[in-house]
């Protein structure tokens, strides 16, 4: 029973810290103080320390000399590689899904896009990113290739480990992304050729990558 209780505390600490990293409350480079977290989570230091080890295995936390546990710094190369793969996977899945996509579900896509607009007006980039993810999950929900969907989920998880949510997309690109969402909805409503849908959905994601590269300090020199 004690082991189970200990495991539950460890899982709770893991989930809390992980969610705070992924939603941006703990940004890249943020130092994690074990004793402080233990007091906050009303537990001992042991479950927190074990949770941090698990998060290290997930690549969400790193250990820095003389600093201890910190949220893993932004990895630009890993971000670019992961987003490139996600563009290909989501493009194919969205095209497959568009063949079976129920017209009555199109309003759901419009709702998410409108919520993205509202979040952008409030400069809430983290919320914008959340709604963007939900929008795309719905676009490929009716893809029948379950293995492909699993790979997309895994790739999204990896994307969350290499960047702070909402930190890699700039306002100008966000506005353009919203416009592209409405274009994609129109294509799906018209049952556009799946090959055209695939290319558009893939390029939509790659446009985010291009905007990031254009705004990179290396390209402003």
From TrEMBL:
Residues 7-74 form the HTH gntR-type domain. GO terms for molecular function: DNA binding; DNA-binding transcription factor activity. PROSITE patterns: HTH_GNTR (PS50949). CDD domains: WHTH_GntR. Keywords: DNA-binding, Transcription, Transcription regulation. Pfam families: FCD, GntR. Signal peptide: none annotated. Gene3D superfamilies: GntR ligand-binding domain-like, Winged helix-like DNA-binding domain superfamily/Winged helix DNA-binding domain. The keyword Lipid metabolism does not apply. This is GntR family transcriptional regulator. It comes from Fictibacillus phosphorivorans. The lineage of its organism: Bacteria, Bacillati, Bacillota, Bacilli, Bacillales.
């Amino acid at each position: 029973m004690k082991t189970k209780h200990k495991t539950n505390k460890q899982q709770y600490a893991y989930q809390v810290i992980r969610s705070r990293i992924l939603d941006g409350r703990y940004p890249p480079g943020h130092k994690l103080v074990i004793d402080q977290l233990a007091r906050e989570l009303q537990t001992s230091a042991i479950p927190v320390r074990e949770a941090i080890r698990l998060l290290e295995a997930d690549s969400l936390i790193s250990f820095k000399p003389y600093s201890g546990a910190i949220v893993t710094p932004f990895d630009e190369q890993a971000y670019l590689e992961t987003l490139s793969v996600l563009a290909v996977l989501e493009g194919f899945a969205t095209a497959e899904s568009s063949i079976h996509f129920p017209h009555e579900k199109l309003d759901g896509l419009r709702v998410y896009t409108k919520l993205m607009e509202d979040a952008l007006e409030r400069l809430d980039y983290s919320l914008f990113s959340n709604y963007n993810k939900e929008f795309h999950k719905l676009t490929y929900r009716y893809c029948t290739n379950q293995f492909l969907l699993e790979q997309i989920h895994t790739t999204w998880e990896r994307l969350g480990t290499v960047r702070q949510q909402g930190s890699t997309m700039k306002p100008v690109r966000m506005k353009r992304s919203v416009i592209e969402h409405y274009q994609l909805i129109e294509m799906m409503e018209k049952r556009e050729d799946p090959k055209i849908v695939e290319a558009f959905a893939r390029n939509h994601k790659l446009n985010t990558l291009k905007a990031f590269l254009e705004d990179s300090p290396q390209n402003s020199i």
